[in-house]
Amino acid sequence: MRAALDAARAAAAAGEVPVGAVVVRGGEVIAVAANAPRTLCDPTAHAEILALRAAATALARDRLEDCDLWVTLEPCAMCAGAIAHARIARLYYGADDMKGGAVEHGPRFFAQPTCHHRPELFAGIGATEAAALLRAFFAARR
Amino acid sequence: MRAALDAARAAAAAGEVPVGAVVVRGGEVIAVAANAPRTLCDPTAHAEILALRAAATALARDRLEDCDLWVTLEPCAMCAGAIAHARIARLYYGADDMKGGAVEHGPRFFAQPTCHHRPELFAGIGATEAAALLRAFFAARR
What we know:
The structure is a homodimer.
Chain A: H1 2-13, E1 20-25, E2 28-34, H2 37-40, H3 47-59, E3 68-73, H4 77-85, E4 90-95, E5 120-122, H5 127-140
Parallel strand pairs in A: 3-4, 4-5
Antiparallel strand pairs in A: 1-2, 1-3
C-alpha cells in the first residue's frame, strides 16, 4: 500500500484526484499506476484500470488470477467490474468512498448475484493516509 | 447501430465475443471498436471502453457530454461506469445481457442513487441481429 500511496501523491502533484494502485504477484510488484483521466484525456484512466492494463500487458494475458490489487480508495463500479474481469485474487483498498464506491456502497458490485468473480476483500488498509490525501486535494481546490 | 454490428462481426472473426460499439457526435462517427480483451491482453478491452477511449483521444478531452454511444450488447458494470465517467449523453444498446448486464440487470448501475451521471437510455436497438451473432459465436464453441 506504500507504493499505492506514493502513486496517489504523484496523481495529486499532476492535478489529478489522488488515487494510486499497485498490482502484485507473489510479493513482486507487476504494475503501479496513478489516477490520470485528465492528463491522458481518458475517462477510464482510473489508477486501478491503468494498473490492471499495465499488469496484463506485462504478463501478456488478460486474466490475472494469481495477482492482487492494492488501491488507496474503494473502487467505483467501472473499476470493480474490471477487477472481476481480470480475475484478481485479493483486493486491498484504503479509504471508503461513500459517493462513488461500488464495493461497500452504491451497487455493491461483488455482492450482486450476477457478479462472475469476487476477489477476497480487505478494506481500510492505509485508510487514514489515503483519506487525508483526498481531503487535502479537495480542500486546496475549494 | 449498423457500424456497431459490423464491429461485432469483426470481433467474432478475431475469436472474441462479438460485441461492437460506436461513439457518435452530431451524426458523425468519432470512434468504432470491437471487443478485444484476448487479442489485446487487456481485461478492460470491451468494445465500449475501447470506443470511449478512442473518442476521448480524438476529441482530446476526458468528458464526452456531446456524444452518444451505440453498443450491440447491454453494458456490464465496468462499461456502465465508464459511460457515466465519460458523461455520454445517450446510450443505445442492442441485446439484453441477463448474466453480465448492469443496466437492466444485476447492479442496475444507472438506477443507483450514487450514480453521478445517467445517459438517456434506449434498449433493444438491433437486438435480434446482435443476439443472433452472440448465439452463433457460442454455439460454434460448444
